[in-house]
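Input record (one chain):
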Amino acid sequence: MTRADERLQRLLIALPTMADEPKLTIEQLAARVGTTAKILRADFQSLDRDDTPPGFVESIALYWGADSVSMRSSHFKRPMRLTRPEVAALELGLGILEQEQPIDERHLVVNVRARLREIAVRSVDTVVDKRKVGATAEVASPFAVEPARDTEWDAVIVLQRAIESQHVVQLTYQRSNDTDVTVRRVRPYALVRADASIYLVAYCERSDALRVFRLDRVRAAMAASDAFERPADFTVESVLQQGHVFVQDAPAAESLVVRYSPTVARWIAERERGDLHADGSLLVHYPLADESWAIRHVLQYGPDAVIVAPERVRHALALVLQRALDELPV
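The corresponding structure, as predicted from the sequence alone:
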């Protein structure tokens, strides 16, 4: 199955290349993109629409023959400039990145954010904007990145320095659903962002194995004087699977089994490995290390995701839904 994000990446390379060099054959264009002519043809065909409304005019028209391909569009002839929604998205992303950088490296992101504001489209580019804010208004960032809690931010600084200097760290950590904290000596290898959270990948001396700790569960981090040597064969990819962390702070003893309806199965299959059934539904197995995550994950898909196993997580989800119903006004 062709992933939608991979197809989009190829098209984003192919279309501007065609605009710059209109006489390329489809084989030459495919070579520039880094794929085959057969795959590139399929990418172009995916742009066809059967539900085009009457009077609709194509903004990009593609023509391809046996060995040639051409395009008609004015989009790639105008100067490229960021729109306000694009500026907002970049500003938010850079703000998050700035928070994650070591203190002595943040000025690099600050400079990029300042340059971004200089090249952004001004908010007076439309008549509506002129009426609302006046002709002298400048674009302002509509987003502010909420800073991390003090304890979490202090832990980030300690961990980043320990990763760079390869020194052991003593973690005070509280696992999900635990009321007590534990103290562990770890050898920090990397900080990883996945599943909308930040994780510490580290070798835990108590477990004598590689473990992953969620940063928001770290209550304190204190650098030790002991040095360590990071394994030469360590890679961040070794702890990620399809963009998800699958090594947890304790080994997952069982799996969460979720069935996705045919309505969403196609999109889930693009980023998860699972068993596709004849009715179009998809069955996916996840390592179950956090029951609260399992419930949140399934709830976001509404009726299109059902927990198949384990039974206790199904029951916990039912209780969450029942409490929500009980709180509704009569």
